[in-house]
Amino acid sequence: MLNLSRQKNRLIIFPLIAIISCFLSITFSPVATAKLFDGPVDQLPLEQRVALKKGELVFAGKEGNYTSRFLISTTVDNAWQVLTDYENFAEFLPGVISSELLESNGDRKVFEQINQIKTLVFSIESRVKVATIESYPGQIAFKAVDGDLKTMDGTWVLESVSPYPSAPADKVLVTYKVIVEPANTPSDSIFYGIYEDRLQETLKAIKTETERRSIRVRN
Asked: Which one of 52, 108, 126, 134 is least enclosed by Cβ atoms within 10 Å?
């Protein structure tokens, strides 16, 4: 009787162990883990992830080579509309006093922008003509083709972000990369210092404007 009882227990326990083992191997396998943590924000370094989730701007780079990121509570389409609103940049971007769309040919656009920089010592206006290639909905490549900059070449990249796996996206990760070089300036270090401050102000203004428009659309 004792042997028979043990055999019955084995028949119950062994399949149960096999099921549990199979479940654990699926749950903690590299493939399953990748699916849980492969979002655009999750792939970034820990320090950046923490800053982004706090709503902060991540800004890195020096001497004309910069990469910035920020999260916006909006849709990719809303963010796209703000980034391509070339004729209205002067209404929400700091230091932009005019912006005019000169050409529109499919996914290629050309606009001219006049910026003004004021300090306690001086006030300077600069002009730049920018050509963009729009690859909706994920990327906008841009390049200065004329004006007061020797080089300005970069991209905007938009990626949807979900709060957890399989959930609808509720935020957009915006990544901005640029290489910039002044044409004529008495001091490159002064130029880059001013440029970095203005760039961070501009990125924050884009985030604010996009969220403002998103609230207006929802209401």
From this structure: 108
* DSSP strand pairing (149-161 vs 139-147): antiparallel
Helix %, strand %, coil % for the chain, to 5? 40, 35, 25
48 token code pair: 């950046």
41 located within any domain? no
Q: What is the DSSP string of 102-166?
A: EEEETTEEEEEEEEEEE-SS-EEEEEEEEEEEEETTTEEEEEEEEESEEEEEEEEEEEEE-SSTT
Q: Which residue has the higher pLDDT, 189 or 160?
A: 160
User: 31 lies in which domain range?
Assistant: 2-36
Nearest to 58 by CA among 141, 82, 67, 180: 67
DSSP state of 196: H
User: Measured between alpha carbons, how far is 197 from 199 in angstroms, rounded to an integer?
Assistant: 6
- At 146-188, the pLDDT tens digits run 999 999 999 999 999 998 888 899 999 999 999 999 987 778 8
pTM of the model: 0.80
| Number of domains comprising the chain | 2
Q: Is residue 122 in a domain?
A: yes
Q: Is 205 left (phi over 0), alpha (psi -120 to 50) or beta?
A: alpha
Min mean pLDDT across 26-30, 67-71, 91-95, 153-157 is at 26-30
Span 69-90, pLDDT tens digits: 999 999 999 999 999 999 999 9
